[in-house]
Specification:
11 helices; 294 residues; mainly alpha
Length: 294
C-alpha cells in the first residue's frame, strides 16, 4: 500500500515537472517571437527611412506595372503567337544553360559527396576542407558568380552555365552526401574483402543503392536552375532573361512582348515540374517496390 502511495506521488511530481517544462518552453518561444518581431519591425523602419520613406508613398502604385503589362497583352493579343515563336529560341537557350549546368554540377557534386562522406571517404583529413568548399559554393549566389565571370569572359551563356554549375555542385554535393549516409555498408565491405579499389567500391557498392535519390534531387535542381538561368539573363548572361530585361524597361513600350515571355517561362516551368515529378515518383516508388520484393 505504501509503495503504491509513493509511486503515485512520484507520478504527480513527474507530471508537475513536465507541465512546468512545457510552460517554460512556451514562455521562451513567446519571448523569441517577440524579439524576432521587434527586430523585423526595426529593420523595416530603418530600411524605409533610408529609402526616404518611399515605400509607403509608392505602395499605392504597386499594381501599375502589372496592369500595364496585362492591358498591353490584351490589346495586342493577335500578335501574341508571333511573340511566342520569336522568343522560343531564347527559351531553348535558357533550358540548355540549365541542363548543362545541372549535368555538370550533378556529376561533380556526386564525386564531392563521396569524398565528404566520412565512412566512404578515401582520405579522412580532406573531409573537413571539402565540406567547407561545398559550403562556400552554396553560400555565394549565382548572380554574384555570374557578374564576376561576365567581367572576365564577357556576356553570354557560358558565364551563366558556370555560375549555376558551381552553385549546383555545392547544393547537390550536400544532398548527395546525406543520401550516402543511409547506404548500407555491407556491399562496400564485401567488395573491399575481394580487393576492389575505392572507385570500384563506390561504383558497384554505393551508387546502385542511392541512384534513384540522386536522380530525384538532380531533377529537382534542374527545375531550380531553369529559374536561375532566366534570372541571370538580367545581368547579361544570355537566354530569355536578357530579352525579358529589355522588354520590361520603363518607356520601351514592349509590355506585350514581356507578357509573351512570362507565358513561355510559366509553361516551361509547369511542364518541367510535371515531368520531373512524374519521373521522381517512378524512381522512388520503383526503388521502394524493389526493396519490398527483395
Amino acid at each position: 500500500m505504501a509503495d503504491g502511495t509513493v509511486s503515485s506521488r512520484n507520478d504527480i511530481k513527474l507530471g508537475d515537472a513536465y507541465l512546468a517544462q512545457i510552460k517554460t518552453k512556451r514562455l521562451m518561444n513567446f519571448i523569441v517571437l517577440v524579439i524576432f518581431l521587434a527586430l523585423l519591425g526595426s529593420g523595416f523602419y530603418a530600411a524605409d527611412s533610408r529609402n526616404a520613406g518611399g515605400f509607403w508613398d509608392g505602395l499605392s502604385n504597386i499594381f501599375d506595372f502589372p496592369a500595364a503589362i496585362f492591358s498591353e497583352a490584351i490589346e495586342r493579343a493577335p500578335l501574341m503567337p508571333g511573340y511566342l515563336a520569336n522568343y522560343f529560341p531564347s527559351l531553348i537557350e535558357t533550358v540548355n544553360i540549365a541542363a548543362a549546368a545541372t549535368l555538370l554540377g550533378a556529376l561533380l557534386g556526386l564525386l564531392m559527396s563521396l569524398l565528404v562522406t566520412r565512412r566512404l571517404a578515401p582520405v579522412l583529413w580532406l573531409v573537413g576542407p571539402l565540406r567547407r568548399v561545398l559550403d562556400i559554393l552554396r553560400a555565394i549566389p549565382e548572380i554574384v558568380i555570374a557578374l564576376v565571370l561576365i567581367f572576365m569572359l564577357g556576356g553570354g551563356p557560358v558565364p551563366a552555365m558556370i555560375a549555376i554549375a558551381l552553385h549546383t555542385i555545392g547544393a547537390l554535393g550536400k544532398l548527395f552526401s546525406e543520401v550516402n549516409e543511409n547506404a548500407s555498408p555491407k556491399p562496400v565491405e564485401g567488395l573491399s574483402s575481394v580487393g576492389a579499389s575505392w572507385a570500384q567500391r563506390m561504383w558497384l557498392g554505393v551508387i546502385p543503392q542511392v541512384a534513384p535519390n540522386y536522380l530525384s534531387y538532380a531533377l529537382l535542381r534542374f527545375e531550380i536552375n531553369i529559374r536561375a538561368s532566366a534570372i541571370l539573363g538580367f545581368v547579361g548572361a544570355g537566354g530569355i532573361g536578357y530579352d525579358l530585361r529589355n522588354t520590361m524597361s520603363w518607356g520601351v513600350g514592349k509590355y506585350d512582348e514581356a507578357a509573351a515571355i512570362f507565358i513561355l517561362l510559366f509553361l516551361t516551368i509547369v511542364v518541367v515540374d510535371q515531368l520531373s515529378s512524374l519521373l521522381r515518383n517512378r524512381l522512388t516508388h520503383g526503388a521502394a517496390n524493389t526493396q519490398v520484393i527483395a
